[in-house]
Amino acid sequence: MFRETELRIFIDGALRVFETLTNQAATVGSPYLVTDGKPGTYDFAGVIDITGIRKGLVYFTAPRGMLTVLLMRMQETDTSEENMRDLVGEVANTISGNARRDLGKGFVISVPNVLANASEGVGLPHARCFVIPINWRTHAAKLVVCLQ
Amino acid sequence: MKSPVEQDAVARSRVRVDILLIAAACVAFVGAVFIPGLRLAKTLSNDAAALKFVSEQRRYSLAIQSAVAAVQDRLDSGGYVQTPIDQLRRDAQALTEATNRMGAAQAIGWFDAPTETTALADADVKASVTALAAEWSAYRRRLQPLFEFQGIPYFDSESAGTHLNPAGRRLAEATTSALRAAREAIPKIDADFNGIGDALQKSSAAAASTLSLVMLLGLLLAATMVALGIMLQLGRQRQEEAVLEAKRQADSIFRTMKEGLFLLDRDLVIGAAHSAAMRDLFKRDDVAGLTFEDLLKDIVPAKTLATAMKFVRVLWTERTNENLVKSINPLGEVEVHFPGESGSAAPQYLEFDFHRVRSGTDISHILVSVSDASARVALGHELKAAQDQSQSQIDTLLGLLRVDPKQLASFLGDSDVALQMVNSILREPAREESAFRKKVDSIFRQVHAVKGEAAAIGLTTIEDRAHRFEEDLRALREKGDLSGNDFLPLIVKLDDLFTHLQSIRDLVAKLSRLQQAAAPAAERGAPASAAAPTDVDSMLKQLAEKVGHENGKAARVESAGLEALPNAYRRLVKDIAVQAVRNAVMHGIETPQARRAAGKDPCGLIRIEVEPQGADGFRLSIEDDGQGLSTQKIVATAMQRGLVSADEAPTLGPKQALRLLFRAGFSTYDKSTKDAGRGVGMNLIANLVQEAGGRIGVSTAPGKFTRFTVNLPVLQSAGKNHEAA
User: Fold this and answer.
1) CB nearest to A2's CB, from B345, B348, B423
2) Each residue of B581-592: b (16+ CB within 10 Å) or e?
């Protein structure tokens, strides 16, 4: 099924970053739908625009606490906002690269755009989206897939 | 514009003409210049040698005349005569030999060595030579007495002194005669020598003149050959430029075209020339020299590869019709998967086309063109999906037209609540496996209820979707080590169900508007279902009829008291009744034949009654007049399902055995279908009742009836969970 495969490609991209950067695997939480167009965001979000066969966006969002621990786990002592942005960008970039490789030419995938203080939310193309919680240690981030 | 092949043919033809012209010029040069030149040079050389010879010989005539005169002088002076006579003999001998050689001169062949007299064989010279020989021969006879003289011509005495003796007198006379003859003969001999010299000079002059012409002709021929050479060179240059241009054009085509293009030889090896698109299409650079099998083996299934190889070999067989063979091309549209690319969401399709390439009448190669058909196939899928969706909408629409509006409205509302409930369950955070497993069970109840109600009112598109959802849930139940990853198919199907429900709502809205527009004004606003039975009652009747029809049975529902149910219990009772009616038809009611044989009405009866129990709430009873329950069969099934052990089974009494029906995972139906076999039906009822704070019981008489009795508490103590959903 195309849609499930698409989801897995995005999820694999996100999980790979955790595995690579921290040598500690993240797990997928219970996925769900949002039907009100408000999947919610944490402090930072890396947004990828998608056009072509499907249109919409995918974003990875994580709270400051998780990013701090991630940076520390990566032996990075500088836990500035700049570094957190870079880290979220790195995750989004890997998701984007994974998608570019596996989804084929029909998908046009943008360079990620990182939003700090993303709590006001990301503009979504339609109300119903897939939300996939990403659990790493005691922290939770999420991947939001909103494609037509 | 001519094709490169045509250009090449024209150029080759031109070169052939040029080569022929050069060969003709060479032959002409040899025939008209070289051979005559050699002959003339030889003539000149022979003439010069002959002239030299002749000029050397002509001195002998004067020498002979001088010798004769010297003999006379000596005779007159009484001198010694033998010396001039000897000289005369030598000179005469030399002239005789010379005239003999000159007379014997003969023409020679190309390869014979010339002599100094060869030129004298010429007819013009020959006459003078013959005349010379005759003159000399005549004069020589006059000299004969002088040649023959031997001794002393004098008589010497002291008294008379020295005077000629008789021999001397004869010598003197001969000498005088010879001198007289010489005055006539010598000029003739000289004239003959002159004639020979003139003829030779004339021959030389003619040869020299001809040689000049021949040289001029040679020059012209050489110039022609040089011109032809230049033309040939220019032709070659043009040909090379044309070939280069053709190659540049072919390279441009190969570089630019989006299709893969290559040739296969008889061993099915790919040729060195191929289009650049091959690299992108096959994601490799080493296509040239690769076998067709190696090109495909990692990207298509083994079966497809085997068929494709057979197909390409058949193309090489002359007796098979190319168009006929191409019609069975197994690579006409083939899905390919490249190693290292995990589960692409957009599968790639390649389209291969094959053409025989002939050299003369024989097949020399197979031309293969490959194009990326992914976009076209994707478009085709989208089109088909759109068509399916349109068809699905039409089916849904037709289905909706058969559904009672009240039932439909009730179903849509309940289903939406159920699906929202499913999503709420999913949304609950979970990390541990137990949490995920609990979700599976909770979601199952909701989806099962949606499926049951959809089946009851005949909404097969929803029923099918819910059934597939159930199948996923069942797989998850049997899977160990659950995680969020396993739930991805569920949210995709949930999304699909939401979408489908919404499309039904949209259709209903449109239908409603149409109905309002079409209905007479007087009828507008009148409640459509005012005279209709309760939605639950009619739905259950439809369900019994439908499930019976699908299973070769006949069943009808009679209900009583449903209208007395408070709204808060409406959905709960509906869910219980749907499951119970389905179970009754599937497991309780016999086939019409069996019922007739048992003396029963062929159409089974299911009675549903709701009785208010005052302070005790409500009692719902669902009874069928089927074959009843076999406790032995129930226990045997429970053992098979692992619900009871072999030791425990014999100890179970009838009531305990019947209670097994309500255990999770129990189903007496062998085959899993949409209507039965999930082993969840009774368990679901039991759970619903339990959640509502009620009790459920079952009683049965083999061959007569099965009755489920549900006691529900008064609403104040009823569980809120179900209604909240």
Assistant:
1) B345
2) bbbbbbbbbbeb
